[in-house]
TrEMBL record:
This is VanZ family protein. It comes from Streptomyces polyrhachis. The chain crosses the membrane at residues 42-66, 78-96, 108-131. Keywords: Membrane, Transmembrane, Transmembrane helix. Residues 7-123 form the VanZ-like domain. InterPro entries: Teicoplanin_resist-assoc, VanZ-like. It holds the Pfam family VanZ. It comes from the Bacteria.
Length: 155
């Protein structure tokens, strides 16, 4: 449910038609928009870069925890999550080119993917470690059901 809500929020912010008086062309040069935002300085840079980093960042936590697997390598989980987020960000950017008033930007793809990676590294390993400690101390046992880890209480 949280994942569906996050994707609806992404759609709302990025895929609505806009009617600005003029629109820049599609940016296919990596880091061009990021440099422009940094050159603007102040709150413009914070809003531009922060918005790009935060747009898909919740997916960095929601995607790995969706399967419920606690015993998985951090590197493998990070690679799968970042790849899925990059593909989703690419799809969003490609869809944006078909909507009036919206243009694609390769830097949005880079920022979205980086935001997912940062959120994953900041939250997921700590949450998994805490849940593993809880399962060991709380009298639960591991049971694999169709590839996903399910926790059941020992009664």
């Amino acid at each position: 449910m949280l994942l569906a809500g996050q994707l609806a929020l992404v759609w709302w912010f990025t895929l609505r038609p806009a009617s600005p008086p003029w629109v820049h062309g599609t940016n296919l040069r990596p880091l061009h928009t990021i440099r422009t935002d940094l050159a603007a300085g102040g709150w413009e840079a914070v809003a531009g870069l922060g918005g790009g980093l935060l747009l898909l960042a919740p997916l960095g936590v929601l995607l790995p925890l969706l399967a419920g697997r606690l015993y998985v390598s951090t590197a493998g989980s990070l690679a799968r999550t970042v790849f899925a987020a990059a593909m989703l960000s690419l799809a969003v950017e490609l869809l944006r080119t078909t909507i009036p008033g919206q243009v694609g930007d390769v830097d949005a793809l880079l920022l979205n993917t980086a935001g997912v990676a940062v959120a994953h590294l900041a939250v997921v390993p700590a949450v998994r470690a805490a849940l593993r400690r809880r399962t060991r101390a709380g009298g639960t046992r591991r049971k694999h059901v169709r590839g996903a880890l399910r926790l059941t209480l020992n009664a």
